[in-house]
Amino acid sequence: MRERDDNISHNVLEEKTSRRSFLKRVGTAAAGVAVVAATGAVPKPAKAAQKSAAKPVRYLFAERQNCTGCRACEYACSLHHEGVVRPSMSRIHVLKYKGVVDVPVICWHCDDSPCINACPTTPKALVKDPKTNGIKLDAKLCLGAKCNKCMEACPTQFIRRNPDNGMPLMCDMCDGDPECIKACNEQAGNPVGPCLIGGKNGFGVNMAYRNVTPEDAGVDLIQNMFYPNEDGERKE
Known about the structure:
Blueprint: H1 2-39, H2 47-50, E1 59-62, H3 72-82, E2 93-97, E3 101-105, H4 114-118, E4 126-128, E5 135-137, H5 149-153, E6 160-161, E7 168-169, H6 179-187, E8 196-199, H7 205-209, H8 214-225
Helix pairs in contact: 3-6
Protein backbone atom coordinates (compact mmCIF):
# COMPACT_ATOMS: atom_id res chain seq x y z
CA MET A 1 0.00 0.00 0.00
CA ARG A 2 2.91 2.31 0.85
CA GLU A 3 4.54 1.60 -2.53
CA ARG A 4 1.26 2.37 -4.39
CA ASP A 5 0.96 5.75 -2.57
CA ASP A 6 4.54 6.64 -3.54
CA ASN A 7 3.85 5.84 -7.20
CA ILE A 8 0.71 8.02 -7.17
CA SER A 9 2.63 10.93 -5.59
CA HIS A 10 5.40 10.58 -8.13
CA ASN A 11 2.97 10.59 -11.04
CA VAL A 12 1.12 13.63 -9.74
CA LEU A 13 4.40 15.52 -9.16
CA GLU A 14 5.65 14.65 -12.67
CA GLU A 15 2.34 15.77 -14.17
CA LYS A 16 2.45 19.13 -12.35
CA THR A 17 6.08 19.68 -13.34
CA SER A 18 5.38 18.91 -17.00
CA ARG A 19 2.34 21.16 -16.99
CA ARG A 20 4.32 23.99 -15.38
CA SER A 21 7.09 23.67 -17.99
CA PHE A 22 4.54 23.62 -20.80
CA LEU A 23 2.81 26.78 -19.51
CA LYS A 24 6.17 28.49 -19.11
CA ARG A 25 7.11 27.72 -22.70
CA VAL A 26 3.73 28.90 -23.96
CA GLY A 27 4.00 32.13 -21.93
CA THR A 28 7.51 32.84 -23.26
CA ALA A 29 6.41 32.28 -26.84
CA ALA A 30 3.34 34.49 -26.37
CA ALA A 31 5.49 37.27 -24.91
CA GLY A 32 7.78 37.06 -27.91
CA VAL A 33 4.86 37.30 -30.31
CA ALA A 34 3.53 40.30 -28.37
CA VAL A 35 6.88 42.12 -28.64
CA VAL A 36 7.07 41.51 -32.39
CA ALA A 37 3.47 42.63 -32.85
CA ALA A 38 3.98 45.78 -30.80
CA THR A 39 7.35 46.86 -32.16
CA GLY A 40 7.62 45.19 -35.52
CA ALA A 41 10.97 43.81 -34.38
CA VAL A 42 12.21 40.70 -36.07
CA PRO A 43 14.81 38.50 -34.40
CA LYS A 44 18.21 38.98 -36.01
CA PRO A 45 19.79 35.94 -37.63
CA ALA A 46 22.95 34.48 -36.18
CA LYS A 47 26.13 36.40 -36.91
CA ALA A 48 27.43 33.58 -39.06
CA ALA A 49 24.42 33.93 -41.33
CA GLN A 50 24.92 37.71 -41.60
CA LYS A 51 28.36 37.46 -43.14
CA SER A 52 28.43 38.52 -46.77
CA ALA A 53 31.00 38.33 -49.48
CA ALA A 54 31.72 42.08 -49.34
CA LYS A 55 34.49 43.28 -51.61
CA PRO A 56 37.60 44.75 -49.97
CA VAL A 57 37.64 48.42 -48.99
CA ARG A 58 39.90 50.32 -51.40
CA TYR A 59 39.52 53.90 -50.18
CA LEU A 60 39.39 55.68 -46.84
CA PHE A 61 37.37 58.83 -46.29
CA ALA A 62 37.24 61.17 -43.32
CA GLU A 63 34.24 63.14 -42.12
CA ARG A 64 36.58 65.41 -40.19
CA GLN A 65 33.85 67.35 -38.41
CA ASN A 66 32.78 64.10 -36.69
CA CYS A 67 36.16 63.37 -35.12
CA THR A 68 36.12 63.53 -31.32
CA GLY A 69 39.82 62.82 -30.85
CA CYS A 70 39.20 59.47 -29.13
CA ARG A 71 42.18 58.00 -31.01
CA ALA A 72 40.64 54.55 -31.14
CA CYS A 73 41.85 54.42 -34.75
CA GLU A 74 45.48 54.86 -33.65
CA TYR A 75 45.17 52.14 -31.03
CA ALA A 76 43.53 49.68 -33.43
CA CYS A 77 46.04 50.35 -36.20
CA SER A 78 49.13 49.92 -34.04
CA LEU A 79 47.69 46.84 -32.38
CA HIS A 80 46.97 45.24 -35.75
CA HIS A 81 50.37 46.00 -37.28
CA GLU A 82 52.67 45.84 -34.26
CA GLY A 83 50.81 43.63 -31.79
CA VAL A 84 50.84 46.39 -29.15
CA VAL A 85 48.95 49.63 -28.58
CA ARG A 86 51.51 52.23 -29.58
CA PRO A 87 50.07 55.34 -31.29
CA SER A 88 53.49 56.47 -32.57
CA MET A 89 53.51 53.36 -34.77
CA SER A 90 50.03 53.93 -36.14
CA ARG A 91 49.61 54.49 -39.88
CA ILE A 92 46.71 56.85 -39.16
CA HIS A 93 47.12 59.72 -36.71
CA VAL A 94 45.00 62.47 -35.22
CA LEU A 95 46.30 66.03 -35.22
CA LYS A 96 45.16 68.29 -32.38
CA TYR A 97 45.11 71.60 -34.24
CA LYS A 98 45.80 74.59 -31.98
CA GLY A 99 44.57 72.50 -29.09
CA VAL A 100 41.00 73.01 -30.28
CA VAL A 101 39.93 70.61 -33.03
CA ASP A 102 40.95 67.07 -33.92
CA VAL A 103 41.94 66.30 -37.50
CA PRO A 104 42.25 62.65 -38.60
CA VAL A 105 45.19 62.40 -41.01
CA ILE A 106 44.76 59.51 -43.41
CA CYS A 107 46.30 58.15 -46.58
CA TRP A 108 43.94 58.98 -49.47
CA HIS A 109 45.43 56.20 -51.62
CA CYS A 110 45.82 58.57 -54.53
CA ASP A 111 45.11 57.07 -57.91
CA ASP A 112 48.37 58.40 -59.32
CA SER A 113 50.43 57.33 -56.26
CA PRO A 114 52.93 60.22 -55.95
CA CYS A 115 54.70 58.50 -53.07
CA ILE A 116 55.39 55.39 -55.13
CA ASN A 117 56.50 57.45 -58.12
CA ALA A 118 58.94 59.36 -55.91
CA CYS A 119 60.56 56.18 -54.52
CA PRO A 120 64.13 56.14 -55.93
CA THR A 121 64.94 52.46 -55.52
CA THR A 122 64.93 49.86 -58.29
CA PRO A 123 62.74 47.93 -57.91
CA LYS A 124 60.44 50.22 -55.92
CA ALA A 125 60.36 49.80 -52.16
CA LEU A 126 56.69 50.88 -52.30
CA VAL A 127 54.07 49.00 -54.30
CA LYS A 128 50.29 49.16 -54.45
CA ASP A 129 48.19 46.05 -53.85
CA PRO A 130 45.86 45.85 -56.88
CA LYS A 131 43.15 44.11 -54.85
CA THR A 132 42.97 46.41 -51.83
CA ASN A 133 44.70 49.59 -53.05
CA GLY A 134 46.86 49.42 -49.94
CA ILE A 135 50.49 50.48 -50.14
CA LYS A 136 53.03 47.84 -49.17
CA LEU A 137 56.56 48.56 -48.02
CA ASP A 138 59.53 46.30 -48.73
CA ALA A 139 61.82 47.00 -45.78
CA LYS A 140 64.77 45.32 -47.56
CA LEU A 141 64.62 47.85 -50.40
CA CYS A 142 63.63 50.98 -48.46
CA LEU A 143 66.43 53.45 -47.71
CA GLY A 144 64.70 54.48 -44.49
CA ALA A 145 65.83 57.67 -42.80
CA LYS A 146 68.37 58.30 -45.57
CA CYS A 147 65.53 59.12 -47.97
CA ASN A 148 62.57 61.45 -47.59
CA LYS A 149 61.25 61.25 -51.14
CA CYS A 150 57.91 59.59 -50.35
CA MET A 151 57.25 61.97 -47.46
CA GLU A 152 58.05 65.01 -49.58
CA ALA A 153 55.79 63.78 -52.39
CA CYS A 154 52.76 63.06 -50.19
CA PRO A 155 50.18 65.83 -50.87
CA THR A 156 48.35 65.21 -47.58
CA GLN A 157 51.48 65.19 -45.37
CA PHE A 158 50.30 61.81 -44.16
CA ILE A 159 53.50 59.81 -44.03
CA ARG A 160 55.32 59.50 -40.73
CA ARG A 161 58.41 57.50 -39.86
CA ASN A 162 58.79 54.43 -37.71
CA PRO A 163 60.44 55.88 -34.57
CA ASP A 164 62.62 52.76 -34.24
CA ASN A 165 64.11 52.33 -37.71
CA GLY A 166 63.15 55.41 -39.76
CA MET A 167 61.06 53.46 -42.25
CA PRO A 168 57.92 55.22 -43.55
CA LEU A 169 54.66 54.02 -42.04
CA MET A 170 52.44 53.23 -45.02
CA CYS A 171 48.73 52.36 -44.96
CA ASP A 172 48.22 48.87 -46.38
CA MET A 173 44.44 48.97 -45.82
CA CYS A 174 44.74 45.95 -43.51
CA ASP A 175 44.31 43.75 -46.59
CA GLY A 176 41.01 45.42 -47.46
CA ASP A 177 39.45 45.35 -43.98
CA PRO A 178 40.74 48.51 -42.23
CA GLU A 179 40.89 48.20 -38.45
CA CYS A 180 40.64 51.98 -38.01
CA ILE A 181 37.18 52.04 -39.59
CA LYS A 182 35.91 49.28 -37.31
CA ALA A 183 37.32 50.99 -34.22
CA CYS A 184 35.80 54.33 -35.25
CA ASN A 185 32.39 52.73 -35.79
CA GLU A 186 32.51 51.19 -32.31
CA GLN A 187 33.24 54.57 -30.71
CA ALA A 188 30.82 56.67 -32.76
CA GLY A 189 27.65 57.84 -31.05
CA ASN A 190 24.30 59.34 -31.96
CA PRO A 191 23.43 61.59 -33.65
CA VAL A 192 27.07 62.10 -34.74
CA GLY A 193 28.34 59.24 -36.84
CA PRO A 194 31.86 57.92 -37.35
CA CYS A 195 34.54 60.14 -38.83
CA LEU A 196 36.16 57.30 -40.78
CA ILE A 197 34.38 55.43 -43.54
CA GLY A 198 35.50 53.22 -46.38
CA GLY A 199 34.33 52.20 -49.78
CA LYS A 200 35.18 50.22 -52.86
CA ASN A 201 35.08 53.23 -55.17
CA GLY A 202 36.87 56.56 -54.79
CA PHE A 203 34.69 58.64 -57.10
CA GLY A 204 37.62 61.03 -57.43
CA VAL A 205 37.08 62.28 -53.88
CA ASN A 206 40.46 60.96 -52.81
CA MET A 207 42.08 63.19 -55.43
CA ALA A 208 39.94 66.22 -54.60
CA TYR A 209 40.76 66.25 -50.88
CA ARG A 210 44.39 65.23 -50.96
CA ASN A 211 45.64 68.80 -51.43
CA VAL A 212 43.95 69.87 -48.19
CA THR A 213 46.72 69.68 -45.60
CA PRO A 214 45.96 68.78 -41.98
CA GLU A 215 46.52 72.43 -41.06
CA ASP A 216 44.12 73.58 -43.78
CA ALA A 217 41.52 71.18 -42.44
CA GLY A 218 42.08 72.46 -38.91
CA VAL A 219 41.49 76.05 -39.97
CA ASP A 220 38.30 75.06 -41.78
CA LEU A 221 37.00 73.10 -38.79
CA ILE A 222 37.59 75.99 -36.41
CA GLN A 223 35.89 78.46 -38.73
CA ASN A 224 32.83 76.26 -38.98
CA MET A 225 32.60 75.44 -35.29
CA PHE A 226 32.82 78.89 -33.68
CA TYR A 227 30.64 81.98 -33.88
CA PRO A 228 31.93 85.11 -35.65
CA ASN A 229 33.46 87.87 -33.54
CA GLU A 230 32.13 91.42 -33.29
CA ASP A 231 33.63 92.31 -36.69
CA GLY A 232 31.61 89.63 -38.40
CA GLU A 233 34.66 87.48 -39.00
CA ARG A 234 35.16 84.00 -37.68
CA LYS A 235 37.88 83.86 -35.07
CA GLU A 236 40.46 81.14 -34.60
